[in-house]
Amino acid sequence: MSNPFLEYMREVAQPMRDELTNANFTELTTAEAVSEFFAENTGTTLVVINSVCGCAAGYARPGAIQSVDTEKRPEHLVTVFAGQDREATMELRSYFPTTAPSSPSIAIMKGGELLHFVSREEIEDSEVDDIVRNLQSAYEQYC
Questions:
Q1: pLDDT digits (tens, 9 = 90+) for 24-34
Q2: Residue 1 to residue 44: CA distance in whole angstroms
Q3: Nearest to 139 by CA among 110, 102, 96
């Protein structure tokens, strides 16, 4: 039996998912996909924990997308959707044991190691250009 609420939320969230996947982010929708990704990829990865909130739409997604329009950038681009892909999000957050859960948020990782983290609080108090500069500065350091 289908759940009308879950179906509605999937439909509402799809354009928000598409914004990142259309920009070449790989969507990790299960805990297994997250684990497999980090087991198989040791290079640098930009991770976006996506959400339906306004700061994700206005700042996080545009900032992440614009930030990779540079020569020095992470090798991989991935995303999970908080509130939609709960197990994937929980698994991903297990790689950041010292950070509080935050969505949206953006991380730079190498293998399974967290190198740089931009929390919701930093995102909602910034402009897109601030996020781009923040991430590109981290790319210079880690990529």
A1: 999 999 999 99
A2: 41
A3: 110
How high does pLDDT run on average in the chain? 95
Q: How would you label 81-103 residue by residue, b for 16+ Cβ within 10 Å and e otherwise?
A: bbebbeebbebbbebbeeeeebb
74 contacts 45 by C-beta, under 8 angstroms = yes
DSSP code string of 109-125: EETTEEEEEE-HHHHHT
Q: Residue 22 and residue 30: Cα distance in Å, rounded?
A: 20
Tokens of 111: 């293998």
For residues 51 and 104, give the distance between their C-alpha atoms in angstroms, rounded to a whole number.
5
Active site residues: 53, 55
